[in-house]
Automatic annotation (TrEMBL):
Residue stretches spanning the membrane: none
InterPro entries: Metal_resp_DNA-bind_regulator, Tscrpt_reg_PadR_N, WH-like_DNA-bd_sf, WH_DNA-bd_sf
Name of protein: PadR family transcriptional regulator
Source organism (scientific name): Phyllobacterium leguminum
Pfam families: PadR
Domain Transcription regulator PadR N-terminal residue range list: 18-86
Length: 108
């Protein structure tokens, strides 16, 4: 049962986590995925479809940069809309987490 809760929490927070990574600056897909795997254990395979959706929704912009050590890399950065959505999601997350923490503190 605990694994199920962890999976659901990760799925629910994935957008917020990607936006948080990009709020720190431009990054390429593998770097985003690696950061999320290390930080919260999210699978790499879920990142690329999410990045396409975020691009289609206008939350991120991209640019391609040639790499001397392999294929070109697609870099992602937040758009102004993406920054606004991140700010709103972060406020919502904090409010929700505070409410859950309060409930857990009140338990005997």
């Amino acid at each position: 049962m605990a694994d199920s809760i962890q999976v659901q929490l990760r799925k629910g927070a994935l957008d917020l986590c990607v936006l948080a990574v990009l709020s720190r600056g431009e990054s390429y897909g593998y770097e985003i995925a690696s950061t999320l795997v290390a930080a919260v254990g999210m699978g790499e395979g879920t990142i690329y479809p999410l990045m396409r959706r975020m691009q289609n929704d206008g939350l991120v912009a991209t640019r391609i940069i040639e790499s001397s050590s392999g294929p070109p890399r697609k870099y992602y950065r937040l758009t102004p809309l993406g920054q606004a959505v991140f700010d709103a999601h972060r406020r919502d997350w904090r409010s929700f987490a505070d409410a859950v923490d309060k409930l857990l503190e009140d338990l005997p």
